[in-house]
Amino acid sequence: MAVRNPVDLLALILVIVGGLNWGLIGLFDFNLVAALFGEGSTLSRIVYILVGLAALYTIYFVTRSDTYHERETAVRH
Predict the structure, then answer these.
(1) Residue 1 domain-assigned?
(2) Got the DSSP string for 7-76?
(3) What total of structural domains would you count in the chain?
(4) Is 4 helix (H, G, I), strand (E, B) or coil?
(5) What is the pLDDT averaged over residues 8-23?
(6) Which domain holds residue 56?
(7) C-alpha dihedral (15, 20, 23, 29), degrees to nearest 10
(8) Model pLDDT for residues 16-46, shown as the tens digit of each residue
(9) d(CA 36, CA 58)
(10) Which residues in 39-70 are b (16+ Cβ under 10 Å) and which e?
(11) Other C-beta atoms within 10 Å of 77: how many?
């Protein structure tokens, strides 16, 4: 799976941030996003929304990458 454009990279970074934040919540009951931007603040909500949208985009990204890989493999054979 290759990152092909800036939107792919941004989505990947946001999904990683979200995953790490959930890991911190599960392990240490520490919410990094809330600590940085304030519990329930508008900025925290924006970060959560962007992470959620990035997760949805990543579903598309993975299926697009798989389809691309299948086409490339079929062309080579």
Answers:
(1) no
(2) HHHHHHHHHHHHHHHHHHHHHHS--HHHHHH-TT-HHHHHHHHHHHHHHHHHHHHHHHHHHHHHHHHHHH
(3) 1
(4) coil
(5) 95
(6) 6-76
(7) -120
(8) 999 999 999 999 999 999 999 999 999 999 9
(9) 25
(10) eeeeebeebeeebeebeebbeebeeeeeeeee
(11) 4
Residue 19 CA, distance from chain mean position? 8
Asked if 54 contacts 6 with a C-beta cutoff of 8 angstroms, the reply is: no
Rounded distance between C-alpha atoms, residue 48 and residue 25, angstroms: 14
d(CA 17, CA 54): 10
pTM value surpassing 0.85: no
